[in-house]
């Protein structure tokens, strides 16, 4: 579990807080999506969970963050890396090896995993990612989606309890993005790994995440189940979040008093809404 209590953080030299009075609890097994406009503090929030803040970026840190009972300030990033696996926004900068299997091996050796166990871990993580056949390929020969999967596989091989991903589908087409989410869903449901993901593709996120956290100007303005959060269309609009077009349509119909029901999240729900409008 991740527990964030009244967290405020200001990067050294910055004029305002990147995070301001954040309170958030993320139970084990959660699949949490973090959304918000550019500069809202999403990346900084992930840094506060994996200890990059304040360990790699100095600044004014107030409040407390604990991960599996470890205080992130006391624990340091090495101890935290055993609990939290990170897929940073710049995966090329994160990967160290030339070949897929070596990338996975590197982390396992670094963690001091027993040599008898290494082969099984490599095989299992490649299989969960659906990239067993890419084992001996060079990372530079992979497509964006394949590379992203290899990066996540290297993290899962270390069996962290939590995986934090910062816009992992940023450079991927819709189909590859979907495959990444399906893979994360497997990790979440089959292996019980907590997923914390910053993602711009809101429709995709709403389909897979259980809960959403909405950031705006360093503050956590909304947190709840996907359904509940999408019902707060006005707050989302103010936070500059791109909401599903069917949800916007529902908001317009509500404003015109043509519709009073729940805001739709997907085409199926939009269809139900349109039928009720038709009979309204
Ligand atoms: N290394 C840094 N030094 C100073 N300010 C930073 C640094 N990184 C981010 N910021 C500032 O912190 C705020 C939040 O940034 P960030 O967490 O990257 O937002 P997001 O990921 O939502 O786009 C922004 O105002 C940004 O300019
Ligand atoms: Mg960011």
Question: Your description of this structure?
Answer:
- Helices cover 45% and strands 22% of the residues.
- The chain has 280 residues and is of the alpha/beta class.
- It has 2 domains: 2-235, P-loop containing nucleotide triphosphate hydrolases (Rossmann fold), CATH 3.40.50.300; 244-280, no CATH class.
- Strands 6-7-8-3-9-10 form a 6-stranded mixed β-sheet, with helices on both faces. A 4-stranded antiparallel β-sheet has the order 2-1-4-5.
- A hairpin with a 2-residue loop joins β9 (211-216) and β10 (219-225).
- The longest helix has 18 residues, at 174-191.
- The structure holds adenosine-5'-diphosphate (ADP) and magnesium ion (MG).
- Magnesium ion is lined by residues 42-43, 166.
- Adenosine-5'-diphosphate binds at residues 11, 14, 18, 36, 38-44, 57.
